[in-house]
Design a protein that fits this description.
Layout lengths: L1 H13 L12 H26 L8 H26 L5 H9 L16 H19 L8 H29 L3 H20 L11 H6 L7 H19 L9 E3 L4 E3 L5 H11 L3 H14 L1 H19 L1
Antiparallel strand pairs: 1-2
Helix pairs in contact: 2-3, 3-6, 5-6, 5-7, 5-9
The structure holds 3-hydroxybutanoyl-coenzyme A.
The site of 3-hydroxybutanoyl-coenzyme A (3HC) has 29 residues, from helix 2, helix 3, helix 5 and helix 8.
Amino acid sequence: ENAAYQAEFDARIDAGATIEAKDWMPEAYRKTLVRQISQHAHSEIVGMLPEGNWISRAPSLKRKAILLAKVQDEGGHGLYLYAAAETLGVSRDDLTEALLSGKAKYSSIFNYPTLNWADVGVIGWLVDGAAIMNQIPLCKCSYGPYARAMVRVCKEESFHQRQGYDALLAMMGGTDEQRELVQDAVNRWWWPSLMMFGPHDADSPNSGQSMRWGIKRISNDDLRQKFVDATVKQAEVLGVTLPDPELKWNEARGHYDFAAIDWDEFWNVVNGHGQCNVDRLAARVKAWEDGAWVREAAVAHADKQAAREKA
Ligand code: 3HC
């Protein structure tokens, strides 16, 4: 009986159909979606921390208002994604516990410090730029709730990237000190941004299955290459140098060649030993504990309402 369901599921995936929450799905399909969507949600929530640090220190009211909107968007993306994960039968509390206990992953990029205002612009330009590259194909993901969440996220993400680039253009048009701040931030964020796309395809345990199931539409390496090819021109217009002496156009390939990524650093950060991993989790644990009274009040209020309705 499962064989019939499995055959129908495979046929629908091969036909490019969308799987909905109430449809039969292989347990492994459900599990890998819970893994990816919940870690994506964790990335959004933890991703609010590096930038949130600069809301109170933005250089103008305009930049403060923009950054406030962006950080709020990231929080909203996290909530959409937790809601998409819940359609697969997991509870928000379990997902939160997995993050706060250090069991669940979130994007390595958020374990780097934001040292000054230029970092906020470079995060918008490079980190949100890489996130857009990664999230646009996810709008065509075979799992409906995830794909639909991505459509809304991608619209807001392009605003995030543009505002970052705009802030950097302003700084590059400023003083030498401002130009040095931008170049220094680019030097610190370039390689970690390339790591956002994940390990090389040959070292990616999930890619094969995720591509067969129409969850991952473009491979880690192909997306990373797309990002590099698109960003080199933007760096030229901005007037910054990307920190890779091997970055060079390869006519035969029709792409830019670039140097090897430091995978020891990648796995070191993914495994919890980056510059900010401890601070990021501590901040999330504190937010959870500080918010306990809100959860208790909401439950007490709901119980009172239920009792009133019963009376
Ligand atoms: N940071 C942390 N962990 C990473 C990682 C990274 N940059 N790249 C890969 N990994 C992990 C994977 O989660 C996997 O571990 P797991 O099996 O325990 O989950 C392992 O490394 C091997 O990687 P795979 O390539 O086999 O895993 P995937 O097939 O899941 O591919 C991915 C990794 C491309 C990140 C994919 O999970 C994905 O597309 N996720 C959804 C998008 C996402 O999470 N993007 C993070 C960017 S942050 C963001 O979007 C917020 C924006 O507002 C800035």
